[in-house]
Structures are given as structure tokens and as C-alpha cells.
């Protein structure tokens, strides 16, 4: 079964829209891909062939209005990779690369790759693989396409809390890979990197993860490495202004970005040893929500709207003035909204023994100047969470709309 519009079928649509961007677990209740059957061999010690589980058999469509990997339920494993064009590579070589990458993405996402030289993903189904492509600001000068460069790629401002590593920021081209199987994701990563040879070289790579589908009794919003329920108040696809906030309109400008979106990528390290020393109450005050179930401190359950006006017996707001959820909320930012679809990361331990771990924060919006920037400006000034996090790398990428049949991603830019 294919996920049309990048959503699994067979799942309650209501539940799905309410958990988009946080929904590693929502991908589990889907049917099997036609013909995709586990390659188990019936011999001593091995079970007879059985159909793939719903996790393995779920396929996300490559073609569509939007690229896959934006409203697709978040997968268990993610790789983010940025490339720079090699000296001498121009528009023609870039177009050839995007053509190769698109063919690979289409085949791998359909589990129909004939190449598969590594064999790493041979036994698995498509496992909700998505491969999403974007262009950084520097791409346009390297390829002589400055006139096509969207204003939305204006560099993000410096924020006072930034400690950015330039070598792990930005890039001409950006690829996001997601899958519910780590081997499938790794194989896609290798293939994307292999095909870049001679045209683009790796600038940086980051590896992330979230919860595995089926790990919880029911689909639940994911938790980040601070243990918080994260993704609750994401914009819902059922909301009338969802598309307007997240995607460039079909009539939008530049024309090649129709139905596309802008991805803000921030590598945010969490100071977990400091965080873990705080009491549960202190931690909950920092966010404004309960750790147990993500419900607002003003009461109710995870889906209850926080009451930002409510005051406690001493007259102070129950959700503190600097609570992250208050400072970031669209209601306190003139409606500014973004779709957060982050992966967690863990890259071992630092010299002081602290985990090098945090969030690969990815925010999707129609215009980062109206989504991420005003919210981050405000968080930068007075967010209780900022004492426990460090922004270490940053990128902003234009992610064109989904390819039509026979088209490659970015064709409208590169052949326009
Ligand atoms: C600039 C945008 C944001 C950054 C950077 C950011 C970092 C960040 N957030 C968490 C944990 C949580 N964030 C939550 C809510 C939330 N965060 C943002 C924006 C940024 N977060 C928004 C717009 C919202 C929604 C606010 C609202 O409308 O209520 C929550 C609460 C649950 C939820 O709604 O998701 C948590 C928890 C971390 C750990 C982090 C950096 C590491
Ligand atoms: Fe947040």
C-alpha cells in the first residue's frame, strides 16, 4: 500500500492529523505493500516466509504535490546531509545530479531499486523511506541562478545564544532521509552520497532517531531526550490555514517553489547533565507542560489548550512568563507558526563526560521570516529552556514542491 500524500492509509485520519510531525508511531497501522514479502528462508532455525510487518511494508509516494518527508509521519531513523558543488560543477552538472538522485529516491522509496550494490537493505520493505531534497542560498550563485533565488533564503539573523559551527552549517544542497528501518536509511544514505561523486562533496552529515513504530501501546506524540512530550501543539493538517502556513502557494513566487516549503535546520545540543539535576517541578515550569503526559500546567490532557491567562493563588501566571511553550506559541507571536519535525541525536560523550546529544530541530514553513525567525528572536530573549540548550549549527533550505510523474526534483528551477 502506498502512502498517498505521504500519509499512511488505514489509520484514523483524525488521530493522524493531530500527531503529524511527532508521529513515529502513527505509521504502524497500515496495510502491506503489494508483493513485498519478507525474504525469510524456511530452513533450520528460520521461520517460513511471512508477510512483512506493516512497518516494513509501508511505502511513501515519491510523486505528489509536496515532497515526501514534510507531512509524512516522522520515521524512527533520520539522516541529514549537506553537499557543496565541487569546483567547476555548474547548473548542467547540478541538473544531472538532481536527475540521478530523483530516480534513486523514486526507486528506493518504492523498494524497486535494481542497483542495490551493497545488499544492506535487501530483505526489508520500503519501511516508509523518504528522501527529500533542498537548495541552500549558496547554490544559486554557484550555478548562475541568482535571479531564481527566493527572498526567503535571506540568511537567518544572528541570535545571541548561537554558538554555530560554520563547517556543520548551510551547504549548496541538502538531503533529508527518513525510514523506520536503520538499514534501509543507511543504504539510501550511501547511494545518495555515491551518486554525488564528481559533482558534489559532502559538507556535513548528522544522524538522528526517534521512537520506533510499535514501541508504544498506542500512537503517541514522541518524546525528546529531555524526556518531554514534544510536538503536541504542532499545526494540524485539519486546520484551514495549515497549507498557507507550511507550503508556498501554487501561485507563489518564485514559480519553481510552488507547493514547496522552507526547512530551517538547527543542531541543538541539550545540556542533559544540568537538566537531569532539576526536579520534575522545575523541569515542568521550564516548558509549561507536564512531563508525564504533555498536558498544560493549567490542567486537562495533552490536547487541552493551555490557559495562558490563568493565575495561581499567589497571583503569578501558572504557565510562567518565560515558559518555552508560552514564549513560542503562535498566540504570543502574531500567529507565527511552523511545523516541527525533529529527530533526536546522540554522538557519544564529550571530554567532560556529558552526552553530545540533543535535537536535530527541523522546522517547515512557507516563509522562515514569518515562521522560525520571529519565534527564535523571542526565545533568544527570554526562554527558560535556553539555559539548557546550545544552538551549534544552522541551515536554511528551499525545498521545492513534489515532482510530477516523469519529472525530477528541482526540474522547474534547473530547466526553467
Ligand atoms: C524557534 C523555534 C523553536 C525552537 C528552536 C525550539 C526548540 C526546542 N523545543 C523543545 C521542546 C518543546 N517545544 C515545545 C513547543 C514548541 N516549541 C516551538 C518552537 C521551538 N522550539 C513551538 C512553536 C512550540 C509550540 C508552542 C505552542 O504553540 O504551544 C514543547 C511543548 C510541546 C509541544 O507543543 O510540542 C516542548 C516540550 C526543545 C527540547 C527544544 C530544543 C532542544
Ligand atoms: Fe520547542
Write the layout of secondary structure elements.
Layout: E1 2-3, H1 13-17, H2 54-57, E2 59-60, E3 77-85, H3 91-109, E4 130-135, H4 137-142, E5 173-179, H5 182-196, E6 200-209, H6 242-246, E7 261-270, H7 272-277, H8 280-287, H9 324-328, E8 339-340, E9 343-349, E10 355-365, H10 372-382, E11 389-399, H11 411-414
Catalytic activity: heme b + 2 H(+) = protoporphyrin IX + Fe(2+)
Family: Belongs to the DyP-type peroxidase family.
Function: Involved in the recovery of exogenous heme iron. Extracts iron from heme while preserving the protoporphyrin ring intact.
Describe the protein.
This protein is 21% helix and 19% strand. Strands 7, 8, 9, 10 and 11 form a 5-stranded antiparallel β-sheet that branches. Strands 4-5-3-6 form a 4-stranded antiparallel β-sheet. Residues 1-5 and 7-43 have low confidence and may be disordered. Helix 3 (91-109) packs antiparallel against helix 5. The protein is globular and about 65 Å long. It has helices at 13-17, 54-57, 91-109, 137-142, 182-196, 242-246, 272-277, 280-287, 324-328, 372-382, 411-414, and strands at residues 2-3, 59-60, 77-85, 130-135, 173-179, 200-209, 261-270, 339-340, 343-349, 355-365, 389-399. It has 416 residues and is an alpha+beta fold. It has one domain (2-33, 52-414). The two termini are 34 Å apart. Fe (ii) ion (FE2) binds at residues 324, 328. Fe (ii) ion binds next to helix 9. InterPro entries: Dimeric_a/b-barrel, Dyp_perox_C, Dyp_perox_N, Dyp_peroxidase, EfeB/EfeN, TAT_signal. It catalyses: heme b + 2 H(+) = protoporphyrin IX + Fe(2+). It is found in: Cell envelope.
Amino acid at each position: 500500500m502506498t502512502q498517498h500524500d505521504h500519509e499512511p492509509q488505514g489509520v484514523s485520519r483524525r488521530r493522524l492529523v493531530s500527531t503529524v510531525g511527532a508521529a513515529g508511531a502513527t505509521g504502524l497501522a497500515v496495510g502491506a505493500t503489494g508483493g513485498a514479502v519478507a525474504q525469510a528462508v524456511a530452513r533450520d532455525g528460520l521461520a517460513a516466509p511471512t508477510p512483512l510487518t506493516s512497518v516494513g511494508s509501508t511505502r511513501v509516494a515519491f510523486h505528489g504535490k509536496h515532497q515526501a518527508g514534510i507531512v509524512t509521519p516522522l520515521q524512527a531513523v533520520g539522516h541529514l546531509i549537506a553537499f557543496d558543488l565541487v569546483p567547476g560543477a555548474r547548473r548542467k552538472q547540478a541538473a544531472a545530479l538532481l536527475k540521478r538522485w530523483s530516480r534513486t529516491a523514486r526507486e528506493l522509496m518504492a523498494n524497486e531499486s535494481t542497483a542495490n550494490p551493497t545488499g544492506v537493505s535487501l530483505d526489508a520493505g520500503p519501511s516508509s523511506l523518504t528522501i527529500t531534497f533542498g537548495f541552500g542560498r549558496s547554490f544559486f550563485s554557484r550555478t548562475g541562478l541568482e535571479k531564481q533565488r527566493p527572498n526567503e533564503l535571506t540568511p537567518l539573523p544572528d541570535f545571541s545564544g548561537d554558538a554555530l559551527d560554520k563547517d556543520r552549517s548551510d551547504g549548496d544542497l541538502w538531503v533529508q532521509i527518513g525510514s523506520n528501518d536503520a538499514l534501509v536509511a543507511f543504504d539510501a544514505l550511501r547511494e545518495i552520497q555515491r551518486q554525488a561523486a564528481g559533482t558534489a562533496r559532502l559538507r556535513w552529515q548528522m544522524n538522528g532517531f526517534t521512537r520506533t513504530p510499535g514501541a508504544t501501546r498506542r500512537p503517541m506524540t514522541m518524546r525528546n531526550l529531555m524526556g518531554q512530550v514534544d510536538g503536541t501543539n504542532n499545526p494540524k493538517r485539519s486546520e484551514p490555514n495549515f497549507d498557507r502556513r507550511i507550503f508556498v502557494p501554487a501561485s507563489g513566487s518564485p514559480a519553481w517553489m510552488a507547493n514547496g516549503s522552507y526547512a530551517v535546520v538547527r543542531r541543538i545540543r541539550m545540556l542533559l547533565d544540568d537538566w537531569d539535576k532539576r526536579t520534575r517541578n522545575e523541569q515542568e515550569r521550564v516548558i509549561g507542560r507536564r512531563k508525564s503526559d504533555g498536558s498544560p500546567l493549567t490542567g486537562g490532557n495533552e490536547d487541552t489548550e493551555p490557559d495562558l491567562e490563568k493565575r495561581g493563588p499567589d497571583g503569578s501566571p501558572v504557565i510562567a512568563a518565560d515558559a518555552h511553550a508560552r514564549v513560542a506559541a503562535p498566540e504570543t507571536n502574531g500567529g507565527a507558526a511552523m511545523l516541527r519535525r525533529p529527530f533526536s541525536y546522540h554522538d557519544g560523550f564529550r571530554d567532560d563526560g556529558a552526552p553530545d546529544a540533543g535535537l536535530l530541530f527541523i522546522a517547515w514553513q512557507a516563509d522562515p521570516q514569518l515562521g522560525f525567525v520571529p519565534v527564535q528572536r523571542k526565545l533568544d530573549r527570554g526562554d527558560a529552556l535556553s539555559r539548557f540548550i546550545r544552538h551549534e549549527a544552522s541551515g536554511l533550505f528551499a525545498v521545492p514542491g513534489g515532482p510530477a510523474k516523469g519529472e525530477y526534483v528541482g526540474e522547474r528551477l534547473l530547466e526553467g
